[in-house]
């Protein structure tokens, strides 16, 4: 069973109690931690003030970390979320000790609240209920948070397909913005997830007086493998986007080259005609065709003949292909 208590509008607590054992497992979930919430934790657990300061809603850590104190572990992790059609990091802090786990976040990771409600309503369905271990509770929560990465990766895969389709139907300009968004999202997920594997490896060695070391090791080894799988998928997507970008640039360059070739041929043809027109426009006294009643048409015919000869020359040189 589980005993639930709503301490304040931002603090909830659930105590997982397995009647078969004499141990209790306490989980405190805090949303948008401010001064009151930090003071509550400091009074209750006497955590390090710097760790508590790092857990406030207004402070965002630039990197994940694991700090091993005598009485607890302090952990900062980032997970990717969609915000305004862009992937950005969401931060969560953990305090984990014997018989307790505390999570602090800005309520932008709904999986945390969903898992908290599950532990409140149906604790018997959790592995930590039978193990009475905060390390197992943490592993179960991290497993759900990491699985949330797969829908984001699937979204990127769909965007890659749309970019490919845009390229091959001749919408290279539209594909440019798609590729830029994809690059931004994939780089952000990679930056967020790149340290997870090493951090999860540190949890493999966590010791518990309630749970065999092998059981904790198995839970976190699965998380490490999951992290590797996510990283491999991101690597494949990164390579695909690079290939798509190179293909799009090649098509754009080819299109630009064709445009420049057409303009160059046009300017080469027009230049001698312009020169010829300028010569006959000098009004010299003894100009051929000037006094001829058909002089205009003769000059026009000469210019047309010159244009045709140049086009034939370009065609034989295969410059028009």
From TrEMBL:
<feature type="transmembrane region" description="Helical">
    <location>
        <begin position="263"/>
        <end position="282"/>
    </location>
</feature>
<keyword id="KW-1133">Transmembrane helix</keyword>
<keyword id="KW-0813">Transport</keyword>
<dbReference type="InterPro" id="IPR002523">
    <property type="entry name" value="MgTranspt_CorA/ZnTranspt_ZntB"/>
</dbReference>
<comment type="similarity">
    <text>Belongs to the CorA metal ion transporter (MIT) (TC 1.A.35) family.</text>
</comment>
<feature type="transmembrane region" description="Helical">
    <location>
        <begin position="294"/>
        <end position="315"/>
    </location>
</feature>
<dbReference type="InterPro" id="IPR045861">
    <property type="entry name" value="CorA_cytoplasmic_dom"/>
</dbReference>
<dbReference type="GO" id="GO:0015087">
    <property type="term" value="F:cobalt ion transmembrane transporter activity"/>
</dbReference>
<dbReference type="GO" id="GO:0015095">
    <property type="term" value="F:magnesium ion transmembrane transporter activity"/>
</dbReference>
<dbReference type="GO" id="GO:0050897">
    <property type="term" value="F:cobalt ion binding"/>
</dbReference>
<keyword id="KW-0812">Transmembrane</keyword>
<dbReference type="GO" id="GO:0005886">
    <property type="term" value="C:plasma membrane"/>
</dbReference>
<keyword id="KW-0472">Membrane</keyword>
<keyword id="KW-1003">Cell membrane</keyword>
<dbReference type="GO" id="GO:0000287">
    <property type="term" value="F:magnesium ion binding"/>
</dbReference>
<protein>
    <recommendedName>
        <fullName>Magnesium transport protein CorA</fullName>
    </recommendedName>
</protein>
<dbReference type="InterPro" id="IPR045863">
    <property type="entry name" value="CorA_TM1_TM2"/>
</dbReference>
<dbReference type="Pfam" id="PF01544">
    <property type="entry name" value="CorA"/>
</dbReference>
